[in-house]
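new request in #modeling-help
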Amino acid sequence: MDDLYWRVVDFLQAMAAGLLVGGTYGLMCVGLGIIFGVMRVVNFAHGDFMMLGMYAAFYLVTGFGTVAFLGPYIGPIVGALLAGPIVFVIGWLLHKFLIAQVTGARVVSAEAEGHYAQIILTLGIALVLANGGLILFGSTPVSVQTPLSRESWEIGPVFLNQARAIGFIIAVACAIGLYLFLTRTSLGKALRAAADNPIAAAYVGVDVDRAHRIAFGLGVGITAIAGGLFAMSQSFQPYIGFDFVIVMYAGVVLGGMGSILGAFWGGLTIGLVQQMSTLVLPYQLQNTAIFVVFLIIVFFRPQGMFGRVWERT
Amino acid sequence: MKEKQRSYLRQYAAIAIFAVVYLALGFAVRNSYYQLMMTLVLIWATMGLGWNMLSGYSGLISFGHAAFFGLGAYTVTIAFVKFGITPWLGIPLGVIVGVIAGVLIGVPTFRLRGHYFALAMLAYPLAMLYVFEWLGYQEVSLPMKRENPAAFMQFSDQRSYMVIAMIAVVACMIVSMHVERSRFGRSLLAIKQNLPAAEAAGINAARWRMYAMMLSAAMAAMAGGIYAIILLVVTPQSVFGALTSAQALIVALFGGVGTFWGPVIGSAILIPLAETLHAELGHILPGIQGVVYGVAIIVIILVAPEGIYWKVRDRVIARRSSAPARAMQSPAAAISITPDAASVRRTFGAPLLELQNVSRAFGGLKAVDDVTLSVPEGMIYGIIGPNGAGKTTLFNVLNGFLADDQGTMRFGGQEIGGLKPHEVCARGIGRTFQVVRAFPRMTVLENVIVGAFIGSSTDDEAERLAMEALRRVGMADAQAHMLAGGLTTKQLRLMELARALAPKPRLLLLDETLAGLGQNELDDILPIIRQVNREGVTIVIIEHTMHAMVKLADHFSVLDHGRLIASGPPAEVTRNPAVIEAYLGKKWMDRAKDQVA
């Protein structure tokens, strides 16, 4: 009886942790989902942009004390939110000078050939960012210090880590804000038009290259915010990006490549899988569980939960 | 064929010279650090050759070759540490483990395309990394053997390892060279350049890819095994890590994709560069190696996307051939064509192709709806219909690109429903495409040879069949050695026709072969098609315009919205009111009726 009770508690605890982590994963996946949805570009460096976001938040909060005056509670959150615009600019510039060379309306229509150059270019960017990060930031794991990460709310027997819970709330808010931006504003609509049919969008006056640049900056910026939020409850080092690339792609593919809303649910699901896998698997294998889930999704439902089926001959 | 042997000998000589010079250099070097670096160059060249075998030749990008490298390394290490098995056996064992892993990974993963494949491949080594950490192999070192060290591949002289690594590289280079020049490599190249065309030309893509994966995994595992012997310490991060996969791809890509020299060149440039920088600056700039690799592939993909080897080679060829300008645009050699006899009443054999109630829907759209038709042997059977009538879908169902939802398809009395494209081709059905699907980086002859593989057992026979097919379409001379990328529309259509003819099919499916051609070009192509038909090949041809077809076809069928709305002799069908309506709409029907009458 007692045994069963604790099992249920463990289950609820893992589920709560999964949901909270999943919210942040969801926001990360949304960032990646925008880039894939609008540009049809497989961005391998996405995890490293998240890493940049984490360090941006870290230095904003601790290094230069820019937002330290806001105190240990609000400071990290503002730091995470500010990481977004910073990484947006980095992404915008990288797109303008590098990525635009191998992407664009021309490549969107070519199904396989164009991806080759993109995948490899973004892999190169990933290597430069991760190892450049090692040079700039050092290899010692750090985290954004906030008293929140040591405090919990208790709901019955279940503990909710405050840093994660607040991260979850802000992540959901950002995702909703982004959704409104894409559906209500004319810029957002232009982005979606460019995503849907770049050629037709160009004919009705959408500057597709500009739309791509904004989408890329937006995508990495959003993920950087998620990274900044995540940094409150997780220590990180410059190589963290590679692991998260798979986590994020798992979420995006699960939600359906090209579906931005789906990406959020996909990320949430991945968070749940990761945390709940600890109920049955050793702790070290939680990422292996994600990879296995990822492979299963890719094999059996590559169009994801919300994706469209692409039929071409 | 002499030319071929000479070219093989040249390559063997080049490999031998490379090996001898490299080893001489290595033996001259006294510094053991440089010797180690020279050995690492060879290991990464082996690894790059492994990556190239799969991704370079077949075009499926793998980010996961660390999986095989790591399995090779850990097999050697665990066999040594736990069971006392010497690496002399451990490395071959690792290769076997690698090949098995290659098959297990390949079977599910080859179902994926493009970026899905790349991403899935990335997941395998990372998953293994955590598993090996969890199993407690965080850091395994190979113990020193005091007595009889050579039996355990332990040498005091670094140069012995260099020789071992050199043997591995040379073996991989020779294997790669033979693959490149055989039907294996050409099939992979065809798959890389245009998968549907390759399958329709009778190439079994799944089989060749699996062979490539197995060889590829074997090479990567071998590299991993030797790596373990040399570094003596194996950690999951160092052998399964993302940087290991990236390094395989980078040396191959930098040096040149799709050639066995590429990974060797790339490794010889990048590994010393990165290692030296790491040694000089590593203490202040710890990630400098990775930055170098990253910058290297960014630059290479923007400047020379196929690698240094091809860039240099294209330069050299351009310089050499600038003098004799392209004077070979001479018109096709006259082929003996019997005079046009379309008006003569022709007789045909038994039904060769029979469709019974064949349907294919995409969601709610019935692209092919309950089509029943029968094509007698020896006929030129025209299928016409407006755009979107389902003509190409019908061909795609016929040659196995798409499964039919229902109905039966019989060819020569045998059911062909459910066969794969290459199997359909093997039964004797060739096809061409509406948008010509050429292999642009191959010559015309090579394009056609790819089509001839299915009808031949040796490569020489394939070449003979290809030449014969080219002769039939009048392209056997100068044009045979032109690159397909530079052909005119008419030449491309003829080349595709030759490719479909090469394995001597009984039935040809021609998809809008005449579309977009001017009158002069039609006058060239129509007699060739008639001649092919007269030589005993039954032809089904799709067009959406009628005028050229009237001169060619013995029988018309009209498709509209997936349904067969008319069928009969051309003269009859063109007067059919339903046909006119399908083409012009109801509004125009009366006016059209007047004109036709």
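bot summary: The domain at 8-239 of chain B is CATH 1.10.3470.10 (ABC transporter involved in vitamin B12 uptake, BtuC).
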